[in-house]
Amino acid sequence: MTYPIERIRNFAIIAHVDHGKSTLADRMLQVTELVDARSMRDQYLDKMDIERERGITIKAQAVRMPYAHREGEYLLNLIDTPGHVDFSYEVSRAMNACEGAVLLVDAAQGMEAQTIANLYLAIEAGLEVIPVLNKIDLPAARPEAVAEEICALIGGEPEDILKVSAKTGQGVPEVLDRIVELVPPPAGDPEAPTRALIFDSIFDSYRGTIVYARVVDGRLRPKDPIKMMATGFEGEIDELGVTSPEAKPIDELGPGEVGYLTAAIKGVGEAKVGDTITLGGKAGAPSPLPGYREPTPMVFSGLYPVDSADFPDLRDALDRLRLNDASFTFEPETSVALGFGFRAGFLGLLHMEIISERLDREFNIPLVTTAPNVAYRVVMQDGSERRVSNPADLPDPNQIETIFEPTVDAMIYTPADYVGPVMQLCEKRRGTMLKMDYLTEERVELRYNLPLAEIVFDFFDRLKSSTRGYASLDYEAADSQAANLVKVDVLLNGEAVDAFSSIVHRDKAYEYGKAMVTKLKELIPRQMFDVPIQAAIGAKIISRETVKARRKDVLAKCYGGDVSRKRKLLEKQKEGKKKMKSVGTVEIPQEAFVAALSIGD
Ligand code: GTP
Which of 13-22, 102-111, 191-200, 502-511 has the lowest average pLDDT? Predict the structure, then answer.
């Protein structure tokens, strides 16, 4: 059944981690009587059993809640958004599927950078923002102060802000009422050619890809031939359904409605977030919905199997992950030090962590992961250009005209007491201040343009430690800039180990080289022979340390006996040393490959 469009309200909840988004969603399910108290369990939507009937995974990306408002029945669609900065494009698409957003703020914690960043996305998408203070039952709650903080950002009067406890349910019906009253109904023409916005798609090994979409114009019905306008996928709708809160097939979705569909789509790469679904053939829409963007990886890292026999398994695992995640890229590469592996591209650091963890947990392939780096645009003296996403591939400096590095605009939200340390940290990381705003007397928003390479390491940890955990960070990609960069190589036993090469700013190269060799000296165990560790820029050695040999006393067994026997043993030992050196069997532990990550400032 389709609802009359004026009775539909599509909204998202914007909240920082742990500010109570899932708990509020649980209460909404109860208030709308979708789930009764008896079958209610905490974080209902998060913890839906993975394999229900027929082994189907339906993640609650969008929940449909009919709500009895005093003026009649309304259909509320709660659309879930990923919270993290790495996925801001996905967040922006999910918001484009809504007309309103509940800005949920923990009354004891106050605003956080991530919340503000997502709030700006909501404002950009033209959403009606409904601020709500949560956890007012906590003794530490400071609803007045936090309400002022919110009003400083979005205007309005502090006393108008709803105050709720998602835990006890206090104030939750008022939130639903306000959504009905303030969020505008969707606009859309049921007779126009069908266009639906994909805001999420997930891969299920039994059914292929499940696509979550919001119909903007026209209608979708089971068996309809469909086409994805950006990827060109064509197929037929197999199942059309809504989540309410379990998956339920439905025979039509009209304008403004939100639901899921399956259509024998092989991987999420064929149904990308932001793409437009239209009908196949002549009924297709002439132009897609605006705003589609190809995901671009920002952070790169080498992935190598510890055991080279695992290489084919690693390839399979990466192929399978890619079915699940269209924004993750990989291509084969070879390293002299590490053998065959892949260079993988991620949206950001969290994304990288998620993928590495999944490889480890789901596929059980022990991996060596190299330190993360960014991709550079290198303009050569002959005018040609190339993209370098592996530092070892940086061409000879004599042939390079300019190197451009990616930058980000970072927003840091911090208590006023820590402005000094935050500024110091940003300056050290080659940041340029864009603006500083005192939102209230105690809260400051700082904006910096920073090279992405400077934050992929440990920027966030440093920020946290210099502000006792109070500051929060968000960033978005900005223009690239020309920079004076050099490649620092690390040589073990006189041979450059490609996996250790990195591209750093010239002013920091010495400091970096020294820190790197010192760190490696700690990490590389003693071998049978001395291992010199050197850092070099081109042919110039800039720093050196030595891992002393573990001396094996080969003569210990020789009690007595003649000199020639001793000599023979010593010769043998020497040869052993030489052999090891020549085959380069320096044992390098896995941590060494990410040593750069733990180099302090
Ligand atoms: P993520 O799913 O990790 O993003 O967190 P979330 O924003 O969904 O927060 P969640 O609902 O999991 O709540 C975080 C914690 O806060 C849980 O331990 C909740 O029980 C608690 N919590 C949520 N709302 C309230 C509230 O109104 N009062 C109190 N006292 N605790 C609450």
Answer: 13-22
- The answer for residues whose C-beta is within 8 angstroms of residue 428's C-beta and 6 or more apart is 601
Q: Which residue has the higher pLDDT, 465 or 506?
A: 506
Residue 364's identity, in one-letter code, is N
Which residue's alpha carbon is at the smallest distance from atom 5 of ligand 1?
18
DSSP alpha helices (H): ranges in 207-284? none
For residue range 431-472, list pLDDT tens digits in order.
Answer: 999 999 987 788 899 999 999 999 887 788 788 888 887 788
552-576 burial string, b = 16+ CB within 10 Å, else e? Answer: eeeeeeeeeeeeeeeeeeeeebeee
Ligand 1: atom nearest CA of 26 is 11
Residue 23 Cα to ligand 1 midpoint, Å, equals: 5
Q: Are strands 329-335 and 339-346 parallel, antiparallel or unpaired?
A: antiparallel
Mean pLDDT of the chain: 85
Nearest atom of ligand 1 to the alpha carbon of 134: 27
- Protein residue whose Cα sits closest to atom 4 of ligand 1: 17
Among candidate residues 275, 291, 282, 279, the one with its CA nearest the CA of residue 231: 275
Q: Rounded to the nearest 5 degrees, what angle is found at the Cα of 152, between the Cα atoms of 148 and 156?
A: 80
Ligand 1 pocket, Cβ-based, cut-off 6 angstroms: 15, 17-23, 83, 134-135, 137-138, 165-167
CA-to-CA distance for 97 and 79, rounded, in angstroms?
8
Q: What is the pLDDT of residues 58-80, one digit of tens each?
A: 455 789 999 999 989 999 999 98
- Which atom of ligand 1 is found nearest the CA of 15? 7
Please state, in angstroms and rounded to a whole number, the distance separating the CA atoms of residues 493 and 577: 12
The reported pLDDT for the residue numbered 529 is 80
CA distance 93 to 15: 17
Residue whose CB lies within 8 A of the most ligand 1 atoms, among 13, 14, 18, for a mutation test: 18
**Atom 14 (ligand 1) nearest CA:** 18
Q: How far is the CA of 21 from the centre of ligand 1 (A)?
A: 7
Distance CA 496, CA 597 (A): 19
User: Ligand 1 centre from 421 Cα, in Å?
Assistant: 31
